Amino acid sequence: MCVAAALFEGFDNQSMGVAAPKLIPAFGLSPVATSWVFSAATFGLFIGAIVGGRLSDLIGRRQVLIGSMLIMGICSLWTATAGNLEVLVLARFMTGLGLGGAMPNFIALSAEAVAPARRMTTVTAVTAALPLGGALAGLIALSQGFGLGLDWHAIFYVGGFGPIVLALIMIPTLRESRVPAAASEPSVTPVPPMMTALFGGGRAATTLQLWLGFFFAQMILLLMLNWLPTLFMGLHFSHAQASWSAILFNVSGALVGMLLARRCAGADRRLWIALTYGGIAASLVLLPTASTFTVAAIACGLAGATIIGAQLILYAAAPQYYETSIRGTGVGAAVGVGRLGSVFGPLYGGVLLAFGGASTVVLLGTIPFVLIAAVATLALARQAQEARDAQPS
Asked: pTM value?
């Protein structure tokens, strides 16, 4: 159930990006207006992740996940029927609330479904479904050129009906991973206040490092997810090739990114983190200089593997730093702060394009943020290593 939830989460995260080349002319959107459409869902994700994570500790993961999937599905269908810019922005914001509420809950549920020693591997496998969902959205967009009679609306119909059906399946089948703290049993650990959960017990440095890493990593990811097909066409590739860019980005991210995340759980964690972020910078330099689609596809695959790999590293690490009674709060806050970066990323790309910047300017202008994210993630890994070294053997 968590893998399926992550799949639809990834599908909807990518849906606006792959629909954009057809949706933008249909609505006559300017680059700035397009940025607001992209950012509406991510702003909703910010609120939904914090509220959904906190509610999961108070009333249970299962209920919040099911409710979030229903909101996600209903509002995605609303997106498909939007008739003007205002309704489109509101529908995307409401969809983001559902997306944000779902993520910390399927991460926490999957982490708590297995023994502690298997948590990083399990969460990595579950969150690897995020880019696979994005690849599915790219395939639907690509089918528009195969004479199947589909347009951009089909992407949001799939992203709407899928989560609704999944939520209905979850009602009789999904089990709660833990008893909510509001229960009367004395064995249940009470949920502390939110600020204590995040910054008490020596967690302040870890929480801040997670937030910084999530903010800039998500900024880079959402900029690429939303703008990649449009940037590809700005590099003089066709619409079909732009759709393939989204597929390559997400499939390579799911397959290679999961391997990178697992390597970062081992003894050479900091080395692999450095290689991951170095690969992001290299792909952003290579892509705008590509003269053929083959070279561009290789750069796109490298970008997907490393950018999504960086996300999976953080997703797998976040549940480890918070105990069960505050895990939803901690993961939800980290995801929420990341979504602030997600809001900034598409707006940043849109502003550069609106002021006359080309695709090359957007891609190369992202590299400084890659370096900041790398420093934050390496600092987090160093702190974790020092904590492990301090434990008695």
From this structure: 0.79
